[in-house]
Amino acid sequence: IIIMFLNFLNSFPPVTRGFLIMSISVNFLCFTNILKPMNIFLNYKLVIDFFNLWRLFSHIFFFGQIGVKSFFYIFFFIRYSKALENFSFQGRGEDYLYLLFTGNSIMLLLKLFVPSANFLGPGITFMIVYIWGKKNAQQLINLVDILHIKGSSLPFLLMISSHFMKQKNIKA
Fold first, then answer.
1. How many CB atoms sit inside 10 A of residue 17's CB?
2. Which domains does the chain have, with CATH numbers?
3. Per-residue pLDDT tens for 131-147?
4. Which residues contact 1 (CB under 8 A, 6 or more apart)?
5. How far apart are CA 171 and CA 80, in angstroms?
6. Phi/psi zone of residue 157: left (φ > 0), alpha (ψ -120 to 50 degrees), beta?
7. Which residues, 6+ apart, have CB-to-CB distance to 16 below 8 Å?
8. Backbone φ/ψ region at 141: left (φ over 0), alpha (ψ -120 to 50), beta
9. pLDDT above 70: residue 4
10. Which whole number is the average pLDDT over 14-42?
11. What local confidence, expressed as pLDDT, does residue 171 receive?
């Protein structure tokens, strides 16, 4: 099982793999109560007054309680992040990392206008899916052999389904 998991991780390009490892780790540690979400959420007062600089980036790795919605976000992130990094940023991992850094920086600024947004992992997912959709606007995507949509419609489908999806927690 460990070898299968390592092979799975090695199938991803480096930046996506690093993000996936951090996301799985943070979400698992929060699920097991080893790490409290309150210790990683984005709070400017704690960043400035207590120099909690990790809060400027740790919030993007948390997708909420382990459940359908968090798996949904992680799935979309790794699928379209892998595609972007392999094709649009092939051999330019540092440029892709810069894209993620820039996206996080913009979301940090937008957080000033939406103070209730403490975890921006879903925001990074929306950003990646949006960029992938723009770069692959005409590509047809097959959803469950029922629905075929163009790549340009994927971000809107993600937004709508995310809005209506209820969080179903997995019981430990």
1. 18
2. 2-164 (1.20.1540)
3. 999 999 999 998 878 88
4. none
5. 29
6. alpha
7. 78, 81, 82, 85
8. beta
9. yes
10. 96
11. 39
